[in-house]
Amino acid sequence: MTSTAWRRMGASLLVAAVGAAGLVAAAPDDQGATGGGGGLVTTWGAADDIAGGTLSDMTVRNVLRTSVGGKDLRIRISNANGDQPLVSDSVYVGRQDSGASVVPGTSRRLTFGGSPTVTIPPGAMAISDPLPGAVPALTKLTVSLHVVGTTGVITAHNRAMQHSYKSTSGDHAADESSTAYQTESSAWFFLNAAIVEASQPVETVATLGDSITSSVGTTIDTDQRWPDILAARYAQLPEPRRLAISNEGISGNRVLGGVAKAGSAGASALARLDKDVLTKPGVRTVLVLEGINDIYAGATTEQLIAGYRQLITRVHASGRCIVGGTLTPTGSSFVYTPEKEAIRQAVNTFIRTSGEFDAVADFDAATRDPANPTRLAAPYDGGDGLHPNDAGNQAMGEAPNLDALRCN
User: Fold this and answer.
1) In this structure, what is the dihedral angle of CA atoms 32, 36, 38, 40, given to the nearest 10 degrees?
2) Phi and psi dihedrals of 296, rounded to 5?
3) Distance CA 14, CA 56 (A)
4) Which of 227, 14, 309 is nearest to 139 (CA)?
5) Which regions of 148-222 does DSSP assign to beta strands (E)?
6) Who's near 127: CB < 8 A, 6+ residues apart?
7) Are strands 125-127 and 243-249 parallel, antiparallel or unpaired?
C-alpha cells in the first residue's frame, strides 16, 4: 500500500505526554506511515469470544492499555463470531480519565476507508484508517463504538479484568463525560487489536492461553495480568530491546477442544491460532501457557503433547518462534487429582526438556510452593488454588527471560 493510501487526516492525536493537558501534534504529510518507521505492530490485543444477549442502538466504551508506543493508531474491530452484519456509524478513541470518562479534548473519530460508518460482515474484521500522531507506551485508551440497530451474536472477550461500559440509548461515542454510560461490564466488545507504527523495528509477543493468561484472580482495572507485568518490564528497557505484548488468553480455553458459543471457553487454541494470533501485525513470538483445562477435561499426556507439536509446527511454518510456558500448580483446586497431577508433571517435563519449543518460560517454578510443589505458594493463591492473584501474576510476569522471547 502506498504512503498516499495512509495519508494523514488530522492535526493532533488523542494522547499527550504524561501530565500534559494538550494533544500531540501530528507529523507533516511527508512523514507518512510507510517511511522512516519500524513497521506496524500490535501494541494491544484480545482474543475473540462470545458474549450473551444482544445490543441495540447503544454505545459501548472499551478501555485498553498499550504496551509499546508508536504513531498512527489503528483499531481492529471484530465480528468474527457474529451471525449478522455489525454496523457502526460512530467510533471514537480517547485517553481514559477515570472509569468511563475521557480526558477532555482527547476524543477523536476513527474512519474506515475515509467513512465514519463501517459494516462488518459475519466472520469478518475491519481495521480503521490510521489516526495521526503519537501514542505513548503503557497508556490507557478508550474505544467507543455506537451500534446501529440490533446486533445478533456479540463478538466479545469475556472476563477481561477491565471494566467496559454500556450507554443509554443512542450515539454517545464522542461524549467525553461518563454521564451516558450507566452500565458496567467485564467484557471487551468487538475490540480485537490496537496497532501502531513503531519508530523502529519492534516485534509482538502473543500470549496464547486460558484464564491464567487472561489473569482471572487479579484486581480488576489495575492491569495486574502477568502479560501486563511483562509489558512493563519491556517498557523499562532501551528502545531497541523492547517488545510489544498482545494478550490472547480466553477463560476456560483448551489446546485441543472447544468451540465458540455464548458462555463457552472459546474455540480451541489449535482452531484460533491463525485468527487470534498469526494475523495480528508484528507478531513474531507465540508464548503458549495452556493445557490445564485439557487435563481436567480428560486429555492424556500423549494427546496434549501432540497438540503442542501441532502448534509448534504451524508457528514455525509461519516463520515465527514459539515459547512453551510450564503449567502452574493446581494442587489445592477442583482441578487436582493425583492422576491429573502426574499428567501435568509429564507435560511440564516435555516443555522443559524436549527442545521442541524455541525457549521455555517456567511459570510452574515461579509460582509453586517449595514445600509442596503441587500447590501454588500461599502468597500467590487467588483463593481457589488455581488462579494466581496480583502477587502471583507479578511473579509470572517476571519469570520469562526478556531476550529469550525475541524471535531470532
Assistant:
1) 10
2) -60, -35
3) 28
4) 14
5) 154-157, 164-169, 181-185, 188-189, 191-197, 203-209
6) 74, 75, 76, 77, 112, 195
7) unpaired
Q: Which residue has the cell 509442596?
A: 372
Give the pLDDT confidence of 262-291 residue by residue, as tens digits: 445 678 999 999 999 999 999 999 999 999
3-class DSSP assignment, residue 94: strand
C-alpha cell read off for 387:
488462579
Query: Can you give the pLDDT at residue 258?
Result: 60
Using the CB atoms, write b or e for 137-152: b if 16+ within 10 Å.
Answer: bbbbbbbbbbbbeebe
The CA distance from 213 to 200, in Å, is 28
Q: Cell numbers at residue 301, please?
A: 499426556
Residue whose C-alpha cell reads 488530522 in the numeric block = 10
Cα separation of 8 and 35, whole Å?
13
Question: Which positions ≥6 away from 194 have C-beta within 8 Å?
Answer: 42, 43, 44, 45, 64, 66, 73, 74, 75, 76, 141, 143
How many C-alpha atoms does 279 have within 13 Å on its Cβ side? 17
At which residue does the C-alpha cell 512523514 appear?
A: 31
271 and 264 Cβ atoms separated by less than 8 Å = no
Low-confidence ranges of the chain (pLDDT < 70): 1-37, 258-265
Helix (H, G, I), strand (E, B) or coil at 364: helix
Q: Tell me the one-letter amino acid at 27.
A: A
Model's pTM, two decimal places?
0.90
